[in-house]
Design brief:
13 helices; single chain; mainly alpha; 347 residues
Length: 347
C-alpha cells in the first residue's frame, strides 16, 4: 500500500512513458499517412469518437469502482482480523486458568497466543501465493519485487517457526490449507483444557465463537483471492480503451487536418509550416490516450488486493501490529519493530 501523500514523480513518469509510447508512434504514423500520402479516409469526425470516449469513461469508471470495492473489502477483513486477534488474546488470558494457580498457566497462554500468530502469518503467506490469474509482471514491477524482496517475507518455515514447535510446524506444513488446520488445533486444545478443568464450558463456547469468526474472516479472504474480478468487465474495459486510443488520432485529424493537409503530395515533402502542427496533434492525442489508459490501469492494479502489488492490503504491517499487541499482553518487552514503508510502500 502506498503511504506517501503524493506519488513518486519518477514512478509516474515511468508508467506514463510506457503507456504513451505506442500511442505516440501511432499518432506519427497517422500524421504521415494523412499529410504525405494523402489518405483522406483516415480523417474521422471527432464527435462520434468523443461519444465513444464518454461511453468508455463510464465503463472504466464502473470497473475502477468495483475494483476498489474489492481492495476496501480486503482491508476491512484484515481490520476484522486485528480486532478478533485482540479479542482472542483477551479471552484466553481471562478465561484459561482464571484462578492463576495452575503451574502451566503462563505456558498455555503463550502457546495459544503464539499459535494464533502462526495462523495470521500462515493466512498471509497463503494469500500471497501466486494466483492462476497473476500475469507476468512488468519490468518496473519485477525490479521492485527484487529490490524489496527482503520485505516480502515469504519464507514459510522462517515465518512460522517462532510460533510453533518443530513437530507442529512439520505437521501444519503438510496440510493443503495450513491456516485452517492451525485454527482446528486451537479448538482441540480448548477441549482438552475443559477436560482438565482449566476452562469452563461457558467460556469454551465463547472462545469457540471467536475461532468461528476467524474461519469466517479467512473464508472471506479466500473468496476474494480465488474469485477473479469478472473477466467480461476487465477484458472489455481493456479492449474498448485500446479501441478508443486507436481512434483518437483519427479524430484529431478532424481538428488539425485543415492545417496539416499536404499541398504538394507528389514531392512527398512537408513544409515547415505544416510540421509545426505535429506537436499539438501529438500532445493532444497522447494526453487523451494517457488519461484513459491510466484510468483503466488503476482498475487492474486494485482488483487483486492480496498479491504483491504496491497497491495491496499491507498484510505484513498488520501481522506485525497484531504480534506486538499480543506479545505485549503476555508481558513481553522485546517486541518486533513496527513495519516501516520502503520507498513509500507499506507491505
Amino acid at each position: 500500500m502506498i503511504k506517501t501523500r503524493r506519488l513518486n514523480r519518477l514512478t509516474v513518469f515511468k508508467w506514463g512513458l510506457a503507456m504513451s509510447l505506442l500511442p505516440a508512434v501511432w499518432v506519427v504514423v497517422v500524421f504521415v499517412l494523412y499529410a504525405i500520402f494523402g489518405y483522406e479516409f483516415l480523417r474521422v469526425p471527432f464527435l462520434p469518437i468523443a461519444t465513444v470516449g464518454t461511453a468508455v469513461a463510464f465503463y472504466v469508471g464502473f470497473k475502477n469502482n468495483s475494483s476498489y470495492d474489492r481492495f476496501w473489502e480486503g482491508r476491512k477483513i484484515w481490520g476484522g482480523v486485528v480486532n478478533a486477534s485482540r479479542s482472542w488474546a483477551n479471552g484466553v488470558l481471562a478465561y484459561v486458568d482464571p484462578d492463576g494457580q495452575h503451574p502451566e498457566r503462563s505456558a498455555t497462554h503463550t502457546e495459544l497466543l503464539y499459535r494464533h500468530l502462526a495462523w495470521i502469518n500462515a493466512l498471509r503467506l497463503q494469500l500471497r501465493r501466486k494466483s492462476r490469474f497473476f500475469h507476468k509482471p512488468a519490468i518496473t514491477t519485477a525490479q521492485r519485487l527484487r529490490k524489496h524482496g527482503d520485505h516480502m517475507r515469504n519464507d514459510w518455515d522462517k515465518e512460522l517457526a517462532p510460533f510453533l514447535s518443530d513437530a507442529e510446524l512439520a505437521d501444519v506444513s503438510k496440510k493443503s490449507n495450513s491456516a485452517t488446520h492451525v485454527v482446528a488445533t486451537q479448538g482441540q486444545q480448548l477441549a482438552r483444557l475443559v477436560e482438565d478443568g482449566r476452562l469452563d464450558k461457558f467460556h469454551q463456547i465463547e472462545l469457540m465463537s471467536l475461532l468461528t469468526e476467524l474461519y469466517t474472516l479467512q473464508g472471506k479472504c479466500e473468496r476474494i483471492k480465488n474469485t477473479p474480478f469478472p473477466r467480461q468487465y476487465a477484458e472489455y474495459s481493456r479492449i474498448v480503451t485500446r479501441v478508443f486510443v486507436f481512434l483518437v488520432p483519427l479524430g484529431m485529424l478532424d481538428v488539425f487536418g485543415d492545417h496539416i493537409r499536404q499541398t504538394n503530395p507528389e514531392e512527398l515533402m512537408l513544409t515547415g509550416e505544416t510540421w509545426m502542427w505535429v506537436a499539438p496533434m501529438l500532445l493532444a492525442s497522447v494526453l487523451v490516450s494517457w488519461v484513459f489508459q491510466s484510468m483503466e490501469g488503476i482498475g487492474d492494479a486494485s482488483e487483486d488486493p492480496f498479491e504483491r502489488s504496491m497497491n495491496d492490503v499491507p498484510m505484513n504491517a498488520l501481522c506485525v501490529t497484531i504480534e506486538r499487541d499480543l506479545r505485549e499482553l503476555l508481558g513481553e518487552t522485546e517486541l518486533p519493530s513496527p513495519e516501516q514503508p520502503i520507498d513509500g510502500i507499506l507491505y
